[in-house]
Structure formats: structure tokens, C-alpha cells
Amino acid sequence: MTVLEKIKNGFLLFDGAMGTMLIKSGLKPGEIPEKLCMTDPDRIINIHRAYLDAGCDVVSANTFGANPFKFDNYEEIIKAALDCANEAVCLAKAENEGRDYFVALDIGSTGEMLKPAGDLEFEDAVEAFAKVINAGKDAATQSGCACGERKLRPSRYSECCFQ
User: Fold this and answer.
1) Which residue, 83, 111, 155, 160, is the most exposed by fewest CB within 10 angstroms?
2) C-alpha distances in Å from residue 145, one per residue of 32, 51, 63, 118
3) CATH no. for residue 47?
4) DSSP collapsed to 3 states, 9-53
5) From the centroid of its chain, how far is CA 150?
6) What is the tens place of the pLDDT at every residue in 114-126?
7) pLDDT tens, 87-110?
8) Contact yes or no for 61/18 (Cβ under 8 A)
């Protein structure tokens, strides 16, 4: 089932605030949430699983601040975040056959002010958001468990997608 089909058949329930859950799980002052997808992926997967187990249909990847203005390696961060979200979906799907889950990019601000209030040109902001969307396009719009179709690093849970 696609996102549009799911909406037409009722409603689509998104997860809650990743930042709140990270703080609850012990996020330290100064710790960068987006980098946890690479340094502590199980923590992020567990948060996604908590939302899926609570009944949500869509998990938002931990990508809120992942953009070229904040990180030189934003593509790596986005891929790691989508990998975490997809692993959680694969695990949930293995336990709930027939249930459809979805992964979405969570796109926050650039962290810069647009002109005239700041120095950022509108076109540069558009380009940055396009880069973020393109970095996640292979997995962010996939429905269900699409590990076999995405072009991300292999997941340790990807075998659940081929059963």
C-alpha cells in the first residue's frame, strides 16, 4: 500500500518528537542528535521501534538538522538515519506481517537566516534543501520494507526484506 492509498483508506499516523525521545534516552548537552545514527544506531532504531510499537505508520528519520550548511558529511548522515529508520521498519514488519509502514525524511531549517535578515540567498537555501532531498530519495519515499530497492549501505536487518 502506498502513502496515498493509506490516506484514502483512513489516516496516516506519524511518530512523535525524536528530540524529546533522545533527551529522555540520555542525550547529553552538546551531543549532536543526527550523528547518533552513526555512533549509536541501536539507540535510534529503538526509538523508531517504540513509535512503531505504539501504532504509528510513519517514522521520521533522524535527519532534522542534516544539511550542507551544518555538516560536510550530510549525505552520510542522511543515509545512516534512513538506514536506522528502515531497520526499525524491517523489524516491525517481520513481527506484523501485512502491516504497512513508511519512512520519511525530517527536514529542518538550514540554521541560517535568509536575506535581508541574514546572509543566505534564497536560491542557496533551495539548493541545500534539494541536496537533502536527493540524498534521501532512494529510501525516504519507499513504502513498507524496501531494503532491497534502496541504494544505501547494507543493513544487518536487510534479510527480513527478502523473505
Assistant:
1) 111
2) 28, 16, 19, 41
3) 3.20.20.330
4) CCCCCECCCHHHHHHHCCCCCCCCHHHHHHHCHHHHHHHHHHHHH
5) 14
6) 999 999 999 999 9
7) 999 999 999 988 999 999 999 999
8) no
Per-residue pLDDT band for 11 (boundaries 50, 70, 90) equals confident
Single-letter residue type at 104: A
Integer Cα distance of 16 and 13 in angstroms: 9
For the stretch 47-61, what's the b/e string if a residue is b when 16 or more beta carbons lie within 10 angstroms of its beta carbon?
A: bbbbbbeeebbbbbb
State the residue range of the domain holding 33: 3-162
End-to-end alpha-carbon separation of the chain, Å?
A: 18
